[in-house]
Amino acid sequence: MNLAMRVYQTEDDYWRIRAFLRKVFLINGRRELSWQAARFDYWRWHGIENLGDGRLEEDVFLWELADGQIAAVLNREGPGDAFLQMHPDHRTPELEEEMLIVAEGRLAVPGDDGRRRLHVWANEHDDARHNILMRRGYAKGEWPDAQERQRQRSLDRPIPEAPPAPGYTVRSLGDVDELPARSWLSWRAFHPDAPDEDYDGGDWYRNIQRAPLYRRDLDIVAVAPNGELAAFCTIWYDDVTRTGYFEPVGTEPTHQQRGLGKTVMCEAMRRLQRLGGTLATVGGGSPAANALYGSVVSPEYELFEPWVRVLS
Length: 312
Prior knowledge:
By secondary structure, this protein is α+β, with helices and mostly antiparallel strands. It has 9 helices and 14 strands. It has 2 domains: 4-149 and 305-310, Aminopeptidase (3-Layer(aba) Sandwich), CATH 3.40.630.30; 169-277, Gcn5-related N-acetyltransferase (GNAT) (Aminopeptidase), CATH 3.40.630.30. Helix 1 (11-27) runs antiparallel to helix 2 (37-48). The longest helix has 17 residues, at 11-27.
């Protein structure tokens, strides 16, 4: 098969990649063998715009058919990560190896020892990719927290009852005046041991709200009896695939152990259901996240693991 590779060029590529990811997700039976469009959005509007994790024009590569249709996309997320998004009709060992060669040359980063490393993500049951990776000198990473457990819940199933703890309420995020409180809540949830002076303000949340699939009615918060925001979850609804993608979910440390994570996630799924959504998905890395997602979304999961090669 004659495919042409090129680097990401224009805003039009962004929208074409999103359409490609939607198509592949549906072809794969809504298994996350490739990214959902919502994850690509989140990387752009949070990972790139807020965290500086890459650039579209340097870290995204397209393989196209003669008629211009996309057959595969290679992109990073965090430093030294490579994700291979492939249309199943065009997946071949030759294409996969070519994508790995590009990733090794363009996406690898130096570690503390100065040697360049690349992490390539693979489903635990993808023997074809495993064989190619081993042949090219990769080894499976041995970091349990770096593994990603992808879970799904059909919204045809009853959604668990999860009323808020006494004194707490659940609602949509407020208007622009509440963005500083929402930003601080996220900081406390994900940086519980960091000093307050490390917090750099809340302007970053405006980028979150610029993402194409963002809806404030699906940005859910739990409010403590004193009026402070205590927990949150955002679910991104793609009405093309009728799928909701949770990212992120968190609880402020002093409000943990009250079931608030479950409360906001179940409220989000009920709202998703009313919009016509039929599937909720979430990926977890840490033990705490996976304990929550296993109880709310599904105890079953598909495991994705990083394979590592030290290049030089």
